[in-house]
Amino acid sequence: QVQLLQSGAEVKRPGASVNLSCEASGDTFTTFYVHWMRQVPGQGLEWMGMINPLNGDTSFGQRLQGRVSMTRDSSTSTVTMELSSLRSDDTAIYYCARGYGFLDFWGRGTLVIVSS
Amino acid sequence: DIVMTQSPDTLSVSPGESATLSCRASQNVRSLLAWYQQKPGQPPRLLIYGASTRATAIPARFSGHGSGTEFTLTISSLQSEDFALYYCQQYSTWPQFTFGQGTKLEIK
Fold this sequence. Notes:
The structure holds two protein chains of two kinds. By secondary structure, chain A is mainly beta. Chain A has no helices and eleven strands. In chain A, the strands form two sheets. In chain A, strands 2, 4, 5, 6, 9, 10 and 11 form a seven-stranded mixed sheet that branches. The mean pLDDT of chain A is 94. Chain B is mainly β. Chain B is globular. The interface between A and B is medium-sized, with 21 and 25 residues.
């Protein structure tokens, strides 16, 4: 069974950066892209970007270009997403999920709170 | 960017009845559309991909239709566990994807 295990909740100051991890198990790590989405509590889903674990190629949503990056570590089957220059409106639950286009397995999410 | 617009924002339906949720794309997305269900405190769950193909273990009461710019998700014989949030997502503009704003399906 495919599982995506996400790192724990984070509290950050405005202007800081946050690194969130997503460890895959139950399937070949390089088989599917890993995507990141976020959801402000009570609001909808925003697609942030994705990474190809096979070669590290990335694509990011227009809104977050320049503030988001993604890397992968094949030795630990882990993808890491970094979001920099945090603002209060980055407070959200961050999800990783796998897929090419549609997303068939999701992590349980990581809450990030940005507050002074 | 392709904008996905779902309607209505909230749909009130009685258990046992059917519900039809709509999703409109601002541009042609062919059949590259997925539907997800999300319950409080949980991540989204894939229901439908390719506009009409049910994902693994999804009951037959969930059905998706449409292509191009107009899509629907129909849930027949609503069960208590079906009352949740539903999102559509287009993946035609790979590698850039967008979600709709969601429809809340609530008990009438």
